[in-house]
Amino acid sequence: MPIIILHQPQLGENIGAAARVMLNFGLTELRLVAPRDGWPNRAAVPMAAGAFEAGVTVTVFETAAAAIGDLGLVLAATARPRGLQKLVTDAGGGAGLIAARGLEAGVIFGAENHGLPSEVVALADVIMTYPVEPKFASLNLAQAVGVFCSNWGAVQGRQGRFEGADEGIEPPAPRDDLLRMFAHFEDELERAGYFYPPEKNDVMKNNLRTAFLRGSWTVQEVRTARQGAGRA
Amino acid sequence: MPIIILHQPQLGENIGAAARVMLNFGLTELRLVAPRDGWPNRAAVPMAAGAFEAGVTVTVFETAAAAIGDLGLVLAATARPRGLQKLVTDAGGGAGLIAARGLEAGVIFGAENHGLPSEVVALADVIMTYPVEPKFASLNLAQAVGVFCSNWGAVQGRQGRFEGADEGIEPPAPRDDLLRMFAHFEDELERAGYFYPPEKNDVMKNNLRTAFLRGSWTVQEVRTARQGAGRA
Q1: Same domain for A184 and A96?
Q2: Which residues of B touch A87 (CB under 8 A)?
Q3: For chain A, what is the domain count?
Q4: pLDDT of B128
Q5: What residues make up the domain containing A187?
Q6: Which CATH number covers residue A49?
Q7: ipTM of this complex prediction, to 2 decimal places
């Protein structure tokens, strides 16, 4: 599971918010390189929303080199060109690369005011950058962490899903049931003189059937509709 | 371009942070449904980091129905099951769907404390949910907006790229240059008695060549290396 590393972060609020979004997507190891206001930091607590108690661990290092010393793959998040000959990827590519390599991996993010120094980027294997608007390219630090973490969640194959439930849309009713429902409706409509002029009957019926089918009615919905239509 | 709608947001800070991350990924239309503290809200300013001045517009509505009245496609972001028979997708799927349909689309997010009420989810076409950790599923509101926005940026085909530059890794040197460099190195090493025992020469050379090739040396790097090796 990738490790998130914040290089010289300034605001405790951002450290807390980063921890929260890490745990939202299942990441639990946070490393801080020389945090400006030290660690622990009270300002981190409200934004973390309980993430530290719920599983995110924090380790403090003095240098970036020490913080990545045990890692086999390091990505550096940056929005600025560096003149360094390194592979460049985006958040989805970065998460995919980490999953594919199977190495102990870390993603390092720079400080709020000036990002990562080039000598830290130089220690990384790969540069990760996001598809940002060139004229408004600076993400909040915790948002930058969140973009990576959400891509990690997606790559893990945990499809968007509901908390504690497999709930999704039910399958549509069998085509037979739908056809019987259409026939029933069409009989009713015919009796009411709905299909006029007669030569357009087929086109109108096909269009109605198409619209109904697009709704993928379930068994229960078909049953409700047929009751409402007053079955003879 | 999709519209971001916040339903009864409580904290101005989150509205500002949402605006910032919207503009980071090129989105500019923000709608607020009955914001708790009214609008404008001073608390939004620092977290927006200039996003309102740089292009994000805000419109306030009294009801969700009014806020989505002109839209052809509405996604509701929620982490809780609803018992509603709606299609469910994740952030990448939601961004892709909006891009594919080409309709005026909106994504609506619920309040910090309890998310979207079911009667608002019922107004949407599709439910969007994220691959979150079931035991720690509640994202910060602006982070939830950010996850969608970053996926929108990715779907737009704006690959991760650098601000104002096409910079990336240079192509590797032509294979000929590399082979000449290898031959040169190997001559030097042979003279220094490096290859021992002789019957392992070929294996050692193949392994060295493989390691060098993996680095995808550029023309400039090959040139530097050959100068350093003191060409005869």
Answers
A1: no
A2: 169
A3: 2
A4: 94
A5: 175-228
A6: 3.40.1280.10
A7: 0.78
